[in-house]
Amino acid sequence: MIRLRPLISILGIAALVISPRPAAADDQPTPEQIEFFEAKIRPVLARHCYECHAADAKKIEGGLTLDTREAVQKGGENGAIIKTGEPAASRLISALKWEELEMPPAGKLPPAVVADFERWIEMGAPDPRTAGSESAKKPTVIDFAKAREHWSYRPLVSPPLPAVKDAAWLRSPLDSFVLARLEASGLGPSSPADKGTLLKRLWFDLVGLPPMFDDLRAFEDETSPDALERQADRLLASPRYGERWGRHWLDVARYADTKDGVLMYGDDRIRPYAYTYRDYVIRALNEDLPLDQFIADQLAADQQVPKDQPWRLAAMGYLTLGRMFDSNLPDVYDDRIDTVTRGMMGLTVACARCHDHKYDAVSQADYYALYGVFASSEEPLELPLTASPEETPGYADFEAKAGPIRKKLAEHIDSQYAALLETARQRIGDYLARIATQKPDPLETAVFYLSLSPDDLRPQIVHRWRKYLAKRGTSTDPVFGPWSELISIDADGEDAFAAKAAEVVSRWQSVASGLEGGQLNPQVKEMLSKTSLRSKEQVARAYGDLFKQTYETSKTAGTDSGGLSDAQRQLLEVVTGNDNPISFPRNHAYLYMARVERDTFHSLQGQLDKLAVATPGAPPRAMTLVDQDKPHDPRIFVRGNPNQQGENVSRRFLQLFGGSNDRPFEHGGGRLDLARAITSSANPLTPRVLANRIWMHHWGEPLVSSPADFGTRSTPPANPELLDWLAVELREGGGEWRMASGADGNPHSPLATHHSPEWSLKRLHRRVVSSATWQQSSADRAEARKIDPDNRLLWRANRRRLDLEAMRDGMLAMAGRLNATMYGRPVNVAGDPASARRTIYGLVDRQDVPGMYRAFDFASPDQTAERRPNTTTPQQALFAMNSPFVAQQARGVAEATIGIPLAADKIRAIYRRVLLREPTAEELTSSEAFVYAASIEVPTGLTQPLWPLEQLAQVLLLTNEAMFVD
Question: Residues 679, 148: contact at Cβ < 8 Å?
């Protein structure tokens, strides 16, 4: 009887399926539930509901308020709006779907938003708000000095090495921190793991692949005391290293190859150049690009990357590859704020979107300071190349097809841009009349507006006119001084208005003519004297006619406006000047197009994208951002509602780490300043967060249990001195260390000596794996488990199941089928059993994550992943038993024994290839019996049946010994 325990034996027929426990109305929400509410629910309520359903609304519709937990549970005049745990039976959901009521009345919410509300109700509608929490009250003052006393916000200094009793055990400085804690608890470390276990652990840790049996034999024969370190050097020099650790970072970057647009199918949903970000991450890690530069690239590569390294421009996919949120830019910026602050700093800044953070020292002003940074950037219409086009095979054929489309798109943009600008100048009177006679409409601040008619006024221009007039409509303005007074007239009827207007005009006629403040532009003065003003609309039309007449005169006078008077030039500045409310950048033209013209724009753009997806000759491009011509001046959104803007804030860093309005960002929109602030010595979070993640992937468990939240709700590290030592090592570097040159990617290349730079990830890897702590056995010790059942003191190594990538790639390697091709477009590794590319190159579909990925705990690409779940489910067992992919690898393992004459030797070869060892006598006997029994039972019902040796290979591939790392 074979004594091996296949994976299916521990999974069984059923498994424990964990789902969120619905919360009772009086339950306190969990941190995860609060985070979901703050990110997904509260902003929608604030933006779309509070105007009519909040305690301080001018009129509360239906007796329903939604600004507190108690109010939501109570409902309105027609009763409860939610049924806890049952979204289908909740009136709120039917209203959002426009089935019963139509809420919000301004427009139906996207299906993804409604799905968030359904999930929220399934959770039990967790809600941290209490009575009065949303009302307009005096804001609390954050005590930043006191906040900085929190363990993760304290300055980062290298802790002194503690004294230990068993100094002979130490192999690395980090061992001192571990051993000191163990000895203080009455424990000691475990014995070292055997060489075979260590080598397998090392390979999977650093390159995500198993060693071969010959590698193991060679390692066991080495007698050098630094044999493991030498092996680590070779692996760190291998290109396989970047593929392994690149995937870890892609989880943080919420990487996906597709968009999330509604009704997008086939090639339409694929981002043709998303893969360049993945390739950048792999290459940057292989080259050991210092992590401070790695971070700066991802936020501001366009502002710092040398021209001879265009491949680094692709780093900005970190920002641009998130969800599109149906073109709702506030949500896009929120996603970027969350991805940057949680991913790089372990701080949940996005929770301050609607109010000051309830737990951490992050103000709403902090949030909108960062909002201004990202709102100051945009994606260019033409993405930059990351390599010379001539380096791409088939480029000429691609360009022959793409060139005409690109030319047609440019011509369409140019013609629309000119027409839209000209129309906006000709219709100044219509814009001014709208402002004079109508209150602001929420659509004026909408990010995405689609006009059915080319004749419609553009709400973006209306909004800019309002802001422009509010700024210039003062009593000292030579052009708009009379405007503010005339538009403010409160009169009942035209005669009454005319009488009051005459008084205003008469007073302004006595003002001196001139172009300075406190004077009146002579052209405006003449216009007022000749015009009968009987309504606000007539005031607007009179001004509009004056601006239009001046503009037409300027076209006759010539481009230099030499034929205009000074007074006319002052008026023309309002129409064509640098700060006028009409103009907009050429690359924004599509935002102003009417439906037919915008459809043409998107159709041409879509043709280029689909051609790039379908044509191998499309050269790689970087999904970058560029700063807008004029940086965004952020204002706080009251309750997170972009239609209710509060005080101004400057683009700056978090106040917790020295950011203030007195120290605004200076470079453009501020992305480069932000990157430098994130890795500044004044910010202790980033090195701690990155060191914690690195430890997590080496150890299986992080030192801080919430890798993306180092705030006040986090559990302090079990060994804070160890975390700080790792963080200082990462940030400061220094010293010399050996590392293989690896120019040819050969793990057995000769060794070379390098000076370690600051922020070297490879250096920290070497520090960890060379430690006695990491080299411990994973064997259980009952006496230690009794004292420390969760192994927080690190008294042994953690046994770990392979993640999806290591499992699949490992099987390919064992079968000798692994395709080592690097970089390039994504492939369908989940749907094509014959695909032998590494899993990192598999297409990640944000809207339809493959079942294999979901079954083996793949990270959600919708938001930055704190860490992957670790589940045990029936689907995993079913995949192991029935997957064509696994069958393919079993065949590959068996085929490697072709040419070996004896059955026993074939079995030994399979054991060596899969389990890296010889079978025991009992296993050999049982395996021979198994193969014999299988050979007399002809498989039926299978398209491609597995033959006896292949069945044995499949059994071994699915054993715990193959699927786990000790």
Answer: no
What's the sign of the alpha-carbon dihedral 486, 491, 497, 503? Answer: negative
Q: Cβ–Cβ contacts within 10 Å for residue 795, how many?
A: 22
Per-residue pLDDT at 334: 95
Q: What is the mean pLDDT of residues 749-760?
A: 56
| Alpha-helical regions (H) of 657-814 | 671-678, 685-699, 720-732, 761-769, 782-787, 804-814
- Residue recorded with tokens 């699915």: 958
Read off the DSSP letter of residue 41.
I
> Could you read off the pLDDT of 922-936 as tens digits, one per residue?
999 999 999 888 877
pLDDT tens column, 579-590 = 899 988 888 898
Q: At what angle do helices 903-915 and 884-895 cross, to 10 degrees?
A: 120
Distance (Å, rounded) from C-alpha 88 to C-alpha 755? 62
Q: At what angle do helices 804-814 and 239-252 cross, to 10 degrees?
A: 160
Q: Please write the tens of the pLDDT for every residue from 526-562.
A: 999 999 899 999 999 999 999 999 999 998 876 555 6
Distance of CA 194 to the CA centre of its chain: 40
On the question of pLDDT at 12 being above 60, the answer is no
Give CA angle at 418 (412, 424), nearest 5°: 125
E-state strands within 236-379: 377-378
Tell me how far apart the alpha carbons of residues 114 and 95 are, in angstroms, rounded to a whole number: 10
The arithmetic mean of pLDDT across residues 602-630, rounded, is 93
**Contact, 412 vs 601, CB < 8 A?**
yes
Residue 508: how many other CB atoms lie within 10 Å: 18
Give the side-chain half-sphere CA count within 13 A for 634. Answer: 30
Nearest residue to 278 via CA among 319, 315, 325, 305? 315
Pairing between strand 751-755 and 736-740? Answer: antiparallel
Q: Please work out, in degrees rounded to the nearest 5, the angle formed at the alpha carbon of residue 219 by the alpha carbons of 216 and 221.
A: 110
* ∠ Cα 304 307 310 (to 5°): 90
Q: Are the C-beta atoms of 673 and 657 separated by less than 8 Å?
A: no
Instruction: Output the average pLDDT for the chain.
Output: 88
CB-based contacts of 775, cutoff 8 Å, min separation 6: 171, 192, 193, 198, 228, 769, 797
CA angle 293, 295, 297 (to 5 degrees): 65
DSSP structure class, residue 645: E
Hey, which residues does 837 pair with through a beta bridge? 819
Q: What is the pLDDT of residues 196-228, one digit of tens each?
A: 999 999 999 999 999 999 999 999 999 899 999
Q: What single string gives the DSSP state of each residue in 397-423?
A: HHHHHHHHHHHHHHHHHHHHHHHHHHH
421-424 long-range contacts, CB within 8 A, separation 24+ = 421/582, 421/583, 421/584, 423/454, 424/458, 424/461, 424/582
Instruction: List residues bridging with 513 in a β-sheet.
Output: 520
H-assigned helices in 185-257: 195-206, 213-221, 227-236, 239-252
The answer to whether the beta carbons of residues 296 and 672 sit under 8 Å apart is yes
Q: How far is CA 467 from CA 464, 486, 521, 584, 633, in A?
A: 5, 17, 21, 15, 13
pLDDT of amino acid 748: 33
Note whether 833 and 882 are within 8 A (CB).
Answer: no
- Report the 10 Å Cβ neighbour count for 834: 8
